[in-house]
Design goal:
Largest sheet of chain A: 5 strands, parallel
Radius of gyration of chain A: 19 Å
Number of helices of chain A: 13
Strand order of the largest sheet of chain B: 3-2-4-5-7-6-12
Order of helices and strands of chain B: EHEHEHEHHHEHEHEHEEEHEEHEHEHH
Helix content of chain B: 25-40%
Number of strands of chain A: 7
Order of helices and strands of chain A: HHEHHHEHEEEHHEHEHHHH
Oligomer: heterodimer
Strand content of chain A: 5-15%
Chain lengths: 331, 325
Amino acid sequence: MSDAAGLRDLPADTAGRLYRTVRLIRRFEERAIELVRDGTIVGGIHPYLGQEAIAAGTCAALRPGDVITSTHRGHGHVLAKGADPARTMAELAGRATGLNRGRGGSMHAADFSIGILGANAIVGAAVPIATGAAWAARRAGRDQVFVTYFGDGAVSQGVVLETFNLAALWRLPVVFVCENNGFATTTRFAEAQAGTVTGRAAAFGIPASTVDATDPQVVLEAAREAVERARSGGGPTLIECLAYRFDAHHTWEHAARPRYRTDEEVAAGMARDPVEMQGARLAPQERADIDAQIESLLELAVRFARESPHPDPADALEHLYADGLRVRAGA
Amino acid sequence: MTILSYLKALNRAIAAEMERDPAVCVFGEDVRVAVSNVTTGLHKKFGPERVIDMPISEQAFTSFATGAALAGQRPLIEFQIPALLFLAFEQIANQAHKFSLMTGGQAHVPVTYLLPSSGSRGGWAGQHSDHPYSLFAHVGIKTVVPATPADAYGLLASAIRDDDPVVVFAPAGAIGVRADVDLAALAPIPLGVGRVHRPGEDVTVVAVGHLVHDALAVAEELAGTVSVEVFDPRTLHPFDWAGLAASLERTGRLVVVDDSNRSCGMAGEILASAAEGMRLIAPPRRVTRPDGAVLPFARELDLAVQPSRAQLRAAIEDVAKLAHT
């Protein structure tokens, strides 16, 4: 897994764009954790720290009209696909100005206008949804590609394996991105999974590879090949992205402190930092300029989230039905 | 006028909606050859792109339909067995149903789930004989249980046109019903509007699905002694509470007959709602399956746990005599 993989083929500004995305996700998550701590974000979040290269690299291979589904650890995907950081932060804070008008929160952030069919809080549940959408797009004659993200914990979920079958059977334009961060909440991959991730894909005849997903450029190269295959009618691909989850499964761990990995292991994992890796490829001034832009962007996002209005409790069940059906009140 | 069977009415509704809207497509198991006779002729008429046999992966293809709906299609899923709803409950209740609210109204999921021959078919035992409509009404999914051929046509057509997920139960006990109908007059029937099949003065019987026909038979038996009004809600969620209240204004007495398990079943909700805010001059009754019933195989055991006409008749006679003290 070369540090410089694919670099020769990249346009001059790609390294900078990838850095901008991983840095944006990194700092967004750090700011969001601050808002969890001060109570602005209620319920906590699943930080994407350490996995930034996966969202950045895969979304960089997509066209604006392409579509993604995300996971409970979804902020990175949503930002990389182009969601407004301010409205995303406002959604985490449950404000009326949020992407989902405060109805979804961290685990359901969606922006259909830019091809984000939503983060999903049930492990593996979005995989068949993305694949059905891919079928519909092909039926309608659109050449969109659908990327569906899921964690290593999802690879023994029935719907994921059932969907591998459907996607392969009908050669649907789907890219399965397995984010293997080593842990299903607190359970290590090897403790919960027989076989391998790519072996599961191979069983259905789906081309699969495992990549070092601490490097955004490595991910981008793998994603380009998969996206090209999907768009040209070659069917699905699985990419297993190896990364390390720097922080907690969920911010509740910051208080509960369950012990399932050692400080040494965490330090070793964090030594392979996608933001540092990509940043080192830029000229110092370019990197500093991007950092400064992101700081001011996120300062505005945090302010927007804090200052946005809360939704009106009288409208708690607005949007429950497409036709505006009003249900009986509970009292 | 023409004799139309309930089963043929379902078939006609799907065909008419597919004709009308190219986004309507059918997913299911054995739907090309129409093992359950609901999709007969559709594969030939509309082709393999719109009538699709799925692998036996109910969970995946249920959410696959959700994704297709999010991307502009209007899938109808036929589940051959009502208990498959338990398998796909996550995909319907926790995914399809929740997208609209969770996305703040960005997304809608127009999928219809059709259950031909729901409830007991006689001799199909514990895992093929459930009637879980109360479960879907409880979680807030639009839930339809037509009793007659014309209602089957009209409610299924409305379900397919609806922009939300809708579950349509076609009870085994109703699917063989035939009626003399004017085919040209078949039309969508709005969800949430009940129907008085037989007006009466003494007791309102709310009957769900196939039990409408039992209620009508019992009402006829009792015609000399008790005047029974038979109210068919047709849709369990949304429920026509105003229609029920209007009936109770006339009768003030209520019996519900419902092929759900007793505890937390639809009948319990109807009784509670009537008790809270409608005119009742006597304590109401319900006739249901027992608490937590699993349908046993042997014919006499199967029948023993389903609501019967004898039970319904006894309940009506009791309620007719009772008064609040």
